[in-house]
Amino acid sequence: QWKDVLGTSSVIRRVVAEGKTLAEMEDPVALIGENGTGKSFFAQCIHQSSPHASEPFVVINATVVGQDPSRPLFGSEEGANDHAGLFELAGNGTIVLQGLGGASESFFACLRQVLVYHSFFSVGGTTLKVFQARIITLLEPEEAGRFPRELREMLSVFSLTLPPLRERGDDARNGQKTRKDGQGVKRAGLF
């Protein structure tokens, strides 16, 4: 939660204020920052202070889903191996995407499906499922150019750049942490 963000520097106060504003919006958000800047924690804060707070918080690492992401993302209705996919498990909650710099073309095709049509079929399924989750994308600065421009634009309607520790003034020099803990986050799936 926002109260767990420690620090009094102007840069921390600014990103927290912007994060609170983004929490009230429904559009996709990209959180951009170097490794260790608190992107995952800010995604949790945005979710917890949004209208989606009581809904699932689903983290999807695109590099772990694999070369055939359709079953983990869309689910399957093929008999003995029926299961809901991550897009369905998210319901009206929040999906956090990470690792897009190393994602497969198949992953991008699945993602494009839900971003463009806001719907999908499970593998082997015949019922159209509506995609309602909000998407927050976590990006390191060098990742932005590693996936299709069309998707970058759809995933970053709004963006928030988290400053590196070297720009956090006395907060970093005093050894303060960006957060106390990450407890209380409801997760429907973790990849």
What can you see in these coordinates?
It is a single chain. A hairpin with an 8-residue loop joins strand 6 and strand 7. With 191 residues, the chain is an alpha/beta fold. It has helices spanning 10-23, 39-48, 62-65, 70-74, 86-89, 105-117, 149-155, 170-173, and strands at 29-32, 57-61, 75-76, 83-84, 94-98, 119-120, 129-130, 134-139, 158-161, 187-190. It has a six-stranded parallel sheet with strand order 9-1-8-5-2-10.
Characteristics of this structure?
191 residues; alpha/beta; 6-stranded parallel sheet; two-stranded antiparallel ribbon; 8 helices; 19% strand; globular; disordered C terminus
Widest beta sheet: strand line-up: 9-1-8-5-2-10
Counted by DSSP, the helix tally is 8
How would a textbook summarize the main sheet?
A: 6 strands, parallel
Q: List low-confidence stretches.
A: 175-191
Please tell me how large the radius of gyration is: 17 Å
Which percent bin holds the helix content? Answer: 25-40%
Which whole number gives the mean pLDDT?
A: 85
Structural class assignment: alpha/beta
Question: How many strand segments?
Answer: 10
Task: Set down the secondary structure blueprint.
Blueprint: H1 10-23, E1 29-32, H2 39-48, E2 57-61, H3 62-65, H4 70-74, E3 75-76, E4 83-84, H5 86-89, E5 94-98, H6 105-117, E6 119-120, E7 129-130, E8 134-139, H7 149-155, E9 158-161, H8 170-173, E10 187-190
Parallel strand pairs: 1-8, 1-9, 2-5, 2-10, 5-8
Antiparallel strand pairs: 3-4, 6-7
Helix pairs in contact: 1-2
